[in-house]
Amino acid sequence: MTPSRGSRSPAVAGHKQRRSRRRSRRTPGRDSPPVSALGDFQTLPLEIFQMVLNYLSVKDISTLSMVSKTISGLLVHYISTSAGSRRLLLQDFHRPEPPAPRGGASILEHYRALGLLLKRCTLLLPTRDRLKYVHKVLSGVSCFKLNGCASPLHCLGLQCYGVFLQILTAGWDELECHRVFNFLWELGNLARKVQTVVSSKPGSARRLELRIRLFCRAVLLFSPGSRRSDSAFWLTRILKPWPMVNQARLLYIIFGPVSSRDVVPQEWLMENNARLLLLSGNSICFTFLASKAVNGRAVELARLMVFMALVCEKDLYCMDWAVKMMQKVCKVFSTALERNNFLQCLENTFAHMLMDTLQAVLAGERDEEDSSFLNLFHLVNAQANFHKEILYMAMGDNSSST
């Protein structure tokens, strides 16, 4: 039976069906709808999307932020919400052993991961806008502020802030880090507060000194994992605006003792003062000695020079170094009378120290190490070698004998 005119042969029908299927599988063309930047999240309401985030760790959310710019924007909005703040800004800083958040990480690790999250979410923003956004997010955490915590010595807030900033600014160039420092300095009005403590008597603003110490050390200098070069950069920025005398005071506030019993330490032995100066290098040593010469403190200067000669003798340093330093200091005196007075004080100091040490030996004041006689031995040799170098210099022979 022959097929009717209106019917199709199976072969032709199958061929057209296969061609139809090939057409349905073709690559989307110009008229096809664009793929959403949210991917599968496009079908979720914003509330459900934020509920999903509650089941992710901070590290997972940080990874999610790199999927697309749209998702990153949603995360920025989520972090700014009250639900996001409660979820991400942990504030249990005052327990001896703060409980680990979800995932088992410590609170320091939590804020390290949060720093990476905000670093990635704000990657395309200018530095100033990034800092403003970060400040807006963290402004509700009182323990991150200089005066925000009532018990700063028992609080991990500033340490968490430090690790957060360390991760946030990692890899930033020096200009950006300068902006970070200026932003933090202006935000806490630190310039005025540092001016208060460095210009007042030690101990008169103890609470402010302590808070400046904790902020500088925990936030800028010694966050866990920080490199020495980074700490040196922040320390330079802290000290740079101030004159040397205020820099010294600020260094003491940051690194010095904090116990009330240790605020006023016992006076150092003059020998140890001289040893410290010798180890500080020529520039610092000369600056210190020259200041005494300029201020007319010839007796103190002479006593210090004698002990420097004694240290050179005891520690086997070249005695000509002490003589050359003395010669350099003598040029600071404005008149020959002042210089001669200093030289007279120097010789008198040698004589008085020798007599005192000899008297101690004759009086039988000895300890287990027989230090009185040993001190006399070193002092006599120090005076002899010191004057020997002066004679060499006076006779025009700068080379000392061996």
TrEMBL record:
PROSITE patterns: FBOX
InterPro entries the UniProt entry points to: ARM_FBXO47, F-box-like_dom_sf, F-box_dom, FBXO47
Residue segments, region Disordered: 1-36
Pfam families the record matches: ARM_FBXO47, F-box
Residue ranges of domain F-box in the record: 38-75
Biased composition (Basic residues): 15-27
CDD domains tied to this protein: F-box_FBXO47
PANTHER family: F-BOX ONLY PROTEIN 47
Name assigned to this protein: F-box protein 47
Organismal lineage: Eukaryota, Metazoa, Chordata, Craniata, Vertebrata
